[in-house]
Amino acid sequence: MHTQAQPVLSEGELRGLKDSLVRLRIDNERDMARARDELTALSTDNTMGSASLREVAGNADYMVADALAIIELIDAALGRMERGTYGICSACGQPIPLARLELRPYGQTCVPCSS
Question: Assuming Cys at both sites, which of 27, 54, 64, 110 could form a disulfide with 89, CB separation 3.0 to 4.6 Å?
Answer without folding.
Answer: 110
